[in-house]
C-alpha cells in the first residue's frame, strides 16, 4: 500500500455537492454517477404519473427535446447534430455498420469494449481493426484508415488521448474521427464539434439515469452513416411514422435516433440542464484539483485528471478503500478512484489514510 504523503494545497471548492443527496466517500463517478436532487424528483414524479395512469408517450417528447438541447450546450454542438440512443455500443454499432466493406479502423489497445467490439463484429465484411497503444494512435493513421475510434479519457487508466495530434493526423489522411466522451463530458470541457462523430452515455459524469446516450454527427458526414436502427422515432414527424417504411426520415441527425426508453428521459433532462448551468472551468478545476492532490500524495504520474488509478493486481488497495467506507472501483488490475462535484478534500484525505494503514 502507499504510505508517502506529500501535502498539496487545493482551493476550497464551490458547494457543488448541495445538488446531491449523497456524495461523501463516493469515488465512483467513472462507474456510475449520483443523481441530482432534481433528477430524483423528476424521475419520482414521472413514476407516480405512470402509476396513476396519467402518463402518455407523447408527453416524453418534451423531456427528450430538453435533454437534446442541454446536451448540445454541454458538448458545444447544435441540437440538430445530435441523435439519441440507449447505450454506447448501440450507437457505435451504427457507425461500425456504416464502414465500407474492407475498411480499416484504428482503435486503442485496452479501450472500452463498447467502443471496439462493434467494429470487430464487422469482420465478416472484411472490416479490419488495428489496435495500437493509446500514445501511438496518431502515428497509426494513414491514407488507408477509414476511421479512428477511441475514448478521449480511458476507462481503465484515466489516461487522456492526444486529441490534437489525432485530429491533425485525420485531417492529413482524410480519416473520420469517432471519440467516446463518456468518461470526459461532465468534468472535462470538450468541444464535440472538433470530431466527426462522438458518443456519450450520460449515466456516469453527467449523472443521468442509465439508458440515455447521445451521438453527435457533423452535418457533412450524415450521409456517410447508414441509419440501421431507424424506427418510427427517426422520422421527420415521429408520430406520423409509426407504420411502414419512413417516407420522410428526419433531415437532421435525428434520423439516427433510437426509439427512446421513456422513463429515463425526465431525469436525464433535469440532470443535463443542471450540468449545462455550471461553469465547466470551475467543475474541471474542482475535480482535477482533488485528483492532483491525491496523485501527488501517492507519488503517481499525471496531472489534470479526475480519474486516478494505480496498479493493484491483488485487489488489496481496493479492499482497503472499501473497508474504510469508501466507494471506489477496480479495473484491469488497477485500483480506480474518481473525483466529481460531490467530493471534497476530506475524501482525498480518507483515501490517503486508508492506503497508509
Please give a handful of descriptors for the protein shown.
33% helix, globular, 357 residues, alpha/beta, single chain, disordered N terminus, seven-stranded mixed β-sheet
Please, could you describe this protein's structure?
With 357 residues, the chain is of the alpha/beta class. The protein has helices spanning 37-52, 60-75, 88-97, 113-120, 137-140, 163-173, 264-276, 280-298, 316-323, 345-356; strands at residues 82-85, 104-108, 128-132, 145-151, 176-180, 197-201, 213-217, 307-311, 329-331, 334-338. The strands form 2 sheets. The chain has a 7-stranded mixed β-sheet with strand order 1-7-6-5-4-2-3, sandwiched between helices. A 3-stranded antiparallel β-sheet has the order 8-10-9, with helices on one face. Strand 2, helix 4 and strand 3 form a beta-alpha-beta unit. Helix 1 (37-52) packs antiparallel against helix 7 (264-276) and helix 3 runs parallel beside helix 4 (113-120).
Amino acid at each position: 500500500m502507499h504510505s508517502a504523503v506529500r501535502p498539496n494545497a487545493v482551493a476550497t471548492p464551490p458547494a457543488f455537492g448541495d445538488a446531491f443527496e449523497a456524495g461523501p466517500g463516493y469515488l465512483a463517478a467513472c462507474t456510475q454517477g449520483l443523481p441530482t436532487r432534481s433528477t430524483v424528483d423528476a424521475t419520482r414524479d414521472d413514476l407516480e404519473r405512470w402509476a396513476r395512469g396519467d402518463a402518455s408517450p407523447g408527453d416524453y417528447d418534451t423531456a427528450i427535446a430538453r435533454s437534446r438541447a442541454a446536451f448540445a450546450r454541454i458538448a458545444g454542438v447544435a441540437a440538430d447534430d445530435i441523435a439519441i440512443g440507449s447505450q454506447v455500443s448501440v450507437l457505435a454499432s451504427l457507425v461500425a455498420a456504416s464502414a465500407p466493406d474492407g475498411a480499416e479502423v484504428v482503435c486503442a489497445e485496452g479501450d472500452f469494449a463498447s467502443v471496439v467490439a462493434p467494429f470487430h463484429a464487422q469482420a465478416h465484411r472484411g472490416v479490419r481493426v488495428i489496435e495500437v497503444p493509446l500514445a501511438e494512435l496518431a502515428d497509426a493513421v494513414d491514407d488507408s484508415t477509414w476511421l479512428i475510434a477511441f475514448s478521449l479519457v480511458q476507462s481503465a487508466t484515466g489516461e487522456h488521448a492526444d486529441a490534437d495530434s489525432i485530429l491533425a493526423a485525420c485531417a492529413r489522411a482524410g480519416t473520420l474521427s469517432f471519440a467516446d466522451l463518456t468518461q470526459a463530458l461532465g468534468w472535462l470541457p470538450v468541444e464535440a464539434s472538433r470530431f466527426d462523430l462522438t458518443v456519450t452515455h450520460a449515466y456516469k459524469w453527467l449523472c443521468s439515469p442509465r439508458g440515455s446516450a447521445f451521438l453527435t454527427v457533423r452535418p457533412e458526414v450524415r450521409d456517410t452513416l447508414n441509419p440501421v436502427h431507424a424506427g418510427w422515432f427517426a422520422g421527420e414527424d415521429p408520430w406520423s411514422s409509426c407504420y411502414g417504411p419512413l417516407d420522410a426520415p428526419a433531415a437532421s441527425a435525428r434520423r439516427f435516433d433510437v426509439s427512446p426508453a421513456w422513463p429515463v428521459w425526465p431525469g436525464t433532462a433535469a440532470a443535463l440542464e443542471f450540468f449545462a448551468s455550471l461553469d465547466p472551468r470551475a467543475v474541471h478545476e474542482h475535480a482535477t484539483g482533488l485528483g492532483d492532490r491525491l496523485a501527488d500524495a501517492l507519488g503517481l504520474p499525471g496531472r489534470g485528471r479526475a480519474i486516478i488509478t494505480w496498479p493493484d493486481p491483488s485487489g488489496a488497495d481496493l479492499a482497503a478503500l472499501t473497508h474504510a467506507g469508501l466507494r471506489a472501483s477496480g479495473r484491469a488490475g488497477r485500483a480506480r478512484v474518481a473525483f466529481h462535484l460531490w467530493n471534497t478534500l476530506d475524501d482525498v484525505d480518507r483515501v490517503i489514510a486508508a492506503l497508509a494503514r
